Amino acid sequence: MVRLRILRLVLAIGAVTVVCALANSQTGRNISALQPSHERKVTSRPMLFLLDSETQEQLASLEFLPYERMTRQDRDLEADAESSISQKAGFAGLEFNQGKWNYQEVVCLALPNHLFLQFTRNNGTGDVSVFSASIPRSGDGRVRIIPILRRGYSLFSPAPINALTISAFNHIRAEKHPVKAPDWLGTGLCYAALAGAKPEIGHPEETDLHKMPSAPTAKLVIPLRASAIIQFTDVSTAPRDMEWTMTFDGKGRLLKATHSRAPQVRTKIADCAPVKVEEKPVRPVVLTEKTVLIR
């Protein structure tokens, strides 16, 4: 009889223990569900441009080919698209059906899925018309033109900063369907060429004791926000170089382009007289952005 009572007591205590454990577990779940989580999900930023320096040296180059040096395939592609080019140039008032037009190919390795052409009609001093044309090689896309000059004048604002140029460039890049991130400097050079320039990235001068270190000729700035800024100096317009700046959003769309005279760096021979230097503590530098330089 006594053993039976003890067995009942043990079973009762065990049952109460199980019930309490289940209740505490459920309460903990409810509390954790109500409390906000302080853990932040780390999302990786998309790579807008290729940063590989070796590949970049290959892609960051332009070549302008006259008609005689173009491949037969590219000539046929231009011939098939000429009616569309003529129609679009007519809408822009470029008088494509009048006078003699010549064209050359712009070889842009950073955008290999398009054939880029630059059309020119030269009727003499002050009467030059120029526009660029983009033809998709695979047929997946549209023929587009970028007006540069009409009889010596810009149709709207200058082509390098024109909203129509920026829009056409974004559409061209959207038709590219890249497998990997494009080259940043090659992309910038392609934009400049489509806007009418023949950009060249110069080599910095060798420095000596009487000269300041030369500034980088091109750089990619990646701010903390998901965006990118491409800057380079075009030395093809010597003696006064031109500076290009292109700002992209986090999705790789070009938002703004500027084209202005590059600042001239004046050097001055330093005084060699001894100077007493007062030692001061150096404040730590906080990095806020990533920059890739090309020297």
Main traits of this protein?
alpha+beta; five-stranded antiparallel β-sheet
Task: Please tell me about this protein's structure.
The chain has 295 residues and is an alpha+beta fold. The protein has a domain of 203 residues. Helices cover 28% and strands 23% of the residues. It has five helices and ten strands. The chain has a five-stranded antiparallel β-sheet with strand order 1-2-3-4-5. The protein has a five-stranded antiparallel β-sheet with strand order 9-8-7-6-10. A hairpin with a 7-residue loop joins strand 7 and strand 8. It is globular and about 110 Å long.
Instruction: List SSEs in N-to-C order.
Output: HHEHEEEEHHEEEEE
Radius of gyration: 32 Å
Helix content: 25-40%
Q: Could you name the ranges where pLDDT drops below 50 across 5 or more consecutive residues?
A: 204-214
Main sheet characteristics: 5 strands, antiparallel
Q: Strand portion, in percent? A: 15-25%
Q: Tally of extended strands?
A: 10
Mean pLDDT: 77
Which shape, going by the Cα principal axes?
globular
- Order of strands, main sheet, comes to 1-2-3-4-5
Instruction: Return the structural class.
Output: alpha+beta
Output the number of helix runs.
Answer: 5
End-to-end separation in angstroms reads: 98 Å
Question: Topology of this protein?
Answer:
Blueprint: H1 2-34, H2 53-59, E1 62-66, H3 72-91, E2 102-108, E3 114-122, E4 128-136, E5 144-149, H4 163-174, H5 184-194, E6 218-222, E7 228-234, E8 242-248, E9 254-261, E10 290-294
Antiparallel strand pairs: 1-2, 2-3, 3-4, 4-5, 6-7, 6-10, 7-8, 8-9
Brief account:
Helix content is 28%, strand content 23%.
